[in-house]
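Lecture notes, unit on protein representations.

Consider one protein chain, 241 amino acids long.
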Amino acid sequence: MPANWTTITVHGQEMEAYVASPAGDGPHPAVIIAQEIWGVNGYLQSMANRLAANGIVGVVPALFHREGPGIVGLFEETELAFERLANYRDEEILADIRATQGYLQSRDDVRSDRIGIMGFCVGGRIAYMAAAAVDGLACAVDFYGGRSMVAFGDGPAPFDLTKDIQVPLLGLFGDDDPNPSPEDVAKFAAALSQNAKTYEFHSYPGAGHGFNCEERPTYRRDASLHAWGKALGWFDKYLKA
């Protein structure tokens, strides 16, 4: 399973990205993985590797690239992570996602009409937003996307874009998570139903924020295994068909 770092150009700036590719010539479906606040650390790289092992090209763009070259991971540097998160702007994030999509579409080993997005923590928020704002995606998976009720910079919050969601959305949440809380998840489900969107939500008792990450104290094995299986099933249905 080949894996490497590449550079993607976004509005004249260079953005690093970790890419893991399946064996074989393809073409393969692909998934853009939107980072947590920790950047493209070992956990996010392992998610791309897992996708590649399941026949999907996984790419993780370094969304903190505007902070300077070489900034790809923060590795639990909490104060610095939140400082950089405060500099996020939704229009810039969407430009990064579109540039990553364009990079994948340029590859001969990728099915250009079978590109999805998946995100964890703030990346889940980004996946939800991209499902509404990025044309040409095939599906989206939101792992406990927090801060989805607020905008980063000018413009609508992801929640306010629900009516514009264009693709099937899978949401995976912990019942003990304060952000998004079970009440937040219920609001999203109601809005998706009201707007007749294709979606599926799963919430896990005893699981909090970050339950899928083995490196965090909030890791919950049973919830993680079930949620990851649901994510792979979503990609099987909407990317591999």
